[in-house]
Design goal:
The protein has 21 helices and 17 strands. The strands form three sheets. Strands 8-9-11-12-13-14-15-16 form an eight-stranded mixed beta barrel, surrounded by four helices. It has a five-stranded mixed beta sheet with strand order 2-3-1-6-7, with helices on both faces. It has a two-stranded antiparallel sheet with strand order 4-5. The chain has three domains: about 90 residues, no CATH class; about 150 residues, Alpha-Beta Plaits, CATH 3.30.70; about 200 residues, EAL domain (TIM Barrel), CATH 3.20.20. β15, α19 and β16 form a beta-alpha-beta unit. By secondary structure, it is an alpha/beta fold. It is elongated, with a radius of gyration of 38 Å.
């Protein structure tokens, strides 16, 4: 079964044909009884003779009237039969259309969730132990964005095009359906090796066929796929659980990026439960002040002096303990609480840094989504005004990959921040695909080299060449550079010789709570980086 319902209006023949047969048999039975009575007893002739004797005049007229009555009754009966058959056929057709409509996705013609669950349940309940069922889940990650940018008509056209392409990839016995939201499913079944091989082929073809996106009208539409797969022996698992496994694999694939494929494993469920705990705890953590700013020093390499601190979020959960920002920051962004979290950390950081000196700057990472939100920007300026923090001491960091995706509209926001005296830095530079044209479009004040290159630069020639190229680019553009992840003296010395401006990393100090910053500043002013060597 290919999964698309092609006969939505087919009326079941059983009910109409059955009622017609009963009618015909009834009429035939009545006729047989009358004919038998005439031949055996002369019943009809006797009735005619009696009528003729009782009414001697008009013999011919009476016979004609009786004949006309029989003809009329027969005609009426046939006409009623035709009308009744038509009514019954229409009723069955409407019933069939309704039943098909209930299990069909109107946008694509594929079975919907109801039809998909019914098919998968039947397939999994087979008593053949040699049958394996492989479920492929496909999420179109940018379907909502397509609707927002191009409109609902283009979104519907994209959905239909995706369904058409899915159907063309299916083999005999495969099944495709539309899930909820932007999810589609494909089912393959058969002996273990056959089912898995069919699924692998479909996934490979799926990634390839959507690699260049879709053309809808005059618009070229990229399709960001997240694919998750799972497999089970028929009779060993229920449909609901198998779909849950595929959805978990899709979620894992989503975190890996567009075009990624993930196969379900048991650890995914544990990870999802952990994520759910984080999601439900984040709002309460903000209210309870569990998430606080930590500060990692930024060192002027040429003067060996503290020039500022990067503000980093740290969360200690009352029962779980420390939760990495690499885990909770992306979740906060996805569920829409990163903006309030950023403003909360900014306010606490500005208040803490009041007495650290006018030459000490604070660097804060802000997502481009938040920067493009007028409500967030109003709150941002309110925090600075309420804390009376000098905007010239603040540096806003934007990750390279993020501003590449969302450069539209950022130019005015960045210009407004710079007019307030706030400086702008590209964070994690080297991990994206920036062009000099983009760097010129957005007036940045600093480039931060991603720590993955810095940590590996002494052992990897390519990493070293990338670091050298970024520092040289910064010098040619008149932009200072910051190197993250400095953990060894050899790295610090090389970066200083290459002309890197600022260093950051465990060689100088890990991120620390606000209460420890004044003491660190005093010790570093006296002894420089040597203080860490003795305390490490």
């Amino acid at each position: 079964m290919l999964g698309r319902l092609t006969r939505r209006g087919a009326a079941p023949a059983g009910s109409t044909a059955g009622s017609g047969l009963v009618e015909l048999l009834s009429i035939a039975g009545i006729c047989a009884v009358l004919i038998s009575a005439e031949f055996r007893y002369g019943l009809l002739s006797g009735i005619a003779a009696t009528v003729s004797t009782a009414v001697p005049f008009g013999n011919t007229l009476i016979v004609a009237a009786v004949a006309a009555l029989w003809v009329g009754m027969g005609t009426f009966s046939v006409r009623r039969r035709v009308e009744l058959s038509s009514v019954l056929a229409d009723r069955e057709r409407l019933k069939s259309d309704y039943e098909a409509h209930k299990i069909t996705d109107t946008a694509t013609g594929l079975p919907n969730t109801l039809g998909f669950n019914a098919y998968l349940t039947d397939l999994l309940e087979t008593d053949r132990p040699d049958v394996f069922v492989t479920l492929i889940g496909v999420e179109i990650g940018n379907l909502t964005l397509i609707r927002d940018v191009h409109g609902a008509a283009v979104e519907a056209a994209v959905e239909l095009a995706i369904a058409d392409r899915l159907v063309t990839l299916l083999g005999a016995g495969d099944f495709a359906a539309r899930g909820s939201g932007s999810t589609f499913y494909v089912v393959t079944s058969g002996p273990g090796d056959v089912s898995v091989a069919a699924a692998d082929r479909i996934v490979a073809d799926l990634i390839e066929t959507f690699r260049l996106g879709l053309t809808v009208g005059a618009a070229a539409i990229p399709a960001k796929l997240h694919v998750g797969t799972t497999a089970a022996r028929a009779g060993a698992i229920g449909a609901e659980r198998l779909v849950e496994q595929a959805d978990l694999a899709i979620h894992h694939s989503r975190r890996k990026g567009p075009g990624a494929v993930s196969a379900f494993d048991a650890d995914m469920k544990v990870a999802l439960e952990h994520r759910a705990m984080i999601e439900t705890s984040l709002a309460g953590a903000l209210r309870a002040n569990e998430i606080v700013p930590y500060f990692q020093p930024l060192i002027d390499l040429s003067r060996n002096k503290v020039s500022g601190f990067e503000v980093l979020a740290r969360w200690t959960h009352p029962t779980v303990g420390a939760i990495s920002p690499a885990v909770f920051i992306p979740i906060a962004d996805e569920i829409g609480v990163l903006g309030p979290l950023t403003l909360d950390l900014l306010g606490k950081a500005c208040k803490a840094a009041e007495g650290w000196g006018d030459d000490i700057k604070l660097a804060v990472n802000v997502s481009p989504t938040a920067l493009r939100n007028p409500a967030f920007m109003d709150g941002f300026r309110d925090v600075l005004e309420a804390s009376r923090f000098d905007p010239r001491r603040l540096e806003v960091e934007i990750t390279e990959n993020a501003f590449i995706e969302e450069v539209t509209g950022l130019d005015k926001v960045i210009a407004g921040l710079k007019s307030d005296g706030i400086s702008i830095s590209i964070d994690d530079f080297g991990t994206g695909y920036s062009s000099l044209h983009r760097l010129r479009m957005l007036p940045f004040d600093k480039i931060k080299i991603d720590q993955s290159f810095v940590k590996d630069m002494m052992n990897n020639a390519d990493s070293r060449r990338i670091v050298e190229a970024i520092i040289s680019l910064g010098q040619s553009l008149g932009l200072p550079t910051t190197a993250e992840g400095i953990e060894a003296e050899s790295n610090r010395s090389l970066l200083e010789r290459l002309g890197c401006t600022i260093g950051q990393g465990y060689l100088f100090a890990p991120a620390m709570p606000a209460a420890e910053v004044p003491d660190f500043l005093a010790r570093y002013t006296r002894e420089g980086v040597a203080v860490l060597r003795r305390t490490a």
